[in-house]
Write a structure and sequence with these properties.
Shape: flat
Number of strands: 7
Order of helices and strands: HEEEEEEE
Largest sheet: 5 strands, antiparallel
Mean pLDDT: 87
Low-confidence stretches: none
Distance between the termini: 48 Å
Oligomer: single chain
Structural class: mainly beta
Strand content: 35-45%
Helix content: 10-25%
Number of domains: 1
Number of helices: 1
Radius of gyration: 18 Å
């Protein structure tokens, strides 16, 4: 008898981010079963930078985190279908995703 083990490739960082973001969205919805993914942007590694506002410097340190935008549809509390886009930060170890960040520079895949 010959036994063959079927091994699949480990998930990519993009796949890990998709899974984390999908779960974060579902956890925040009133009706998680109504969730429907529309699109994800590319996964972008964040670089430490300094933002200057009115002459004041504000260092932004991301500690190797990534950013990805996600557009999805879901039902609201009244049963209406809404389409929403959020930007998420995913930690460098791909263990958490937090959303609601501004991301005007995000470009979605077509």
């Amino acid at each position: 008898m010959l036994a063959v083990a079927c091994s699949s490739a480990p998930p990519t960082n993009e796949e890990k981010a998709h899974e984390l973001i999908t779960q974060a969205v579902k956890d925040s919805l009133k009706d998680p079963e109504s969730y429907e993914s529309v699109s994800f942007s590319e996964l972008k590694k964040l670089k430490d930078t300094t933002i200057v506002v009115d002459g004041q410097s504000y260092p932004q340190q991301y500690q190797g985190a990534y950013e990805m935008a996600h557009t999805y549809k879901s039902k609201n509390a009244y049963g209406g279908i809404l389409t929403k886009s959020d930007v998420f930060h995913v930690d460098s170890g791909f263990t958490t995703a937090k959303g609601g960040f501004l991301g005007q520079h995000i470009k979605f895949k077509k």
